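Supplementary Note 3. Input sequence used for the single-chain structure prediction.
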Amino acid sequence: MSKLSLQNAILTFDQLETTPSRKDGISEELEDALRQLGCEFIQSAGILMKLPQVAMATAQVLFQRFFYVASLKKFSALDIGMGALFLASKVQESPSKIRDLINVYHYLIIRYQNTPHEPLEYFGQTFFEMKDAIVIAEMQILKRLGFNVHVQLPYGLMVNYLKVLELTEHEEIPQKAWGYLNDSLRTNIYVCYQPPTIACAVIWLAARMCQVKLPTEPAWWELFEARLEDIL
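The predicted structure, written as discrete structure tokens, is reproduced below.
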């Protein structure tokens, strides 16, 4: 009988290198660009909808996971982004209205395309097309990920680690470390490492940028179940 694990799903090297999109002929550069664009839309939409950061972060992790089991040639990055944010808002108990999500994404798409903004006509063709896209995307995410939508985030761990290291009152380190966590959502780091390692990595980077020396005897990262080679 398999054991229930609350750890994040971590991919193998082969899974990271041979993605479905790469197999379909999409270049690494284009795939990375589309992943980043999808995550930027999710973050921007979440901010405009005043969703908590945990919902936006969960959506971006689900978005990244999805495109390691499905191809960008077959699924739109924007559609899956909408579905991921809609699903994540429910997972994090801050459900959003589908109409609000459609309005926000419609505005972001027009702004990205740099075209004149026209109010979205409710119950018009575009509205129903986007609504259908969200519903289908949410179902595809659940199906492709085997309904495994559990995402453990490193934000709480990072705050606790900063308390242990007595860095919570530092003028810059907490803010920099938090920002690094948000920026890293646009990368594949959340499918490569567990949250303790990610939390340690952003603390180490923030401390280095602020020229603050962290204790090495004993090694501070070992206290938090991380390895130095993974942090670096």
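The radius of gyration is 19 Å. The CA atoms of residues 87 and 96 lie 9 Å apart.
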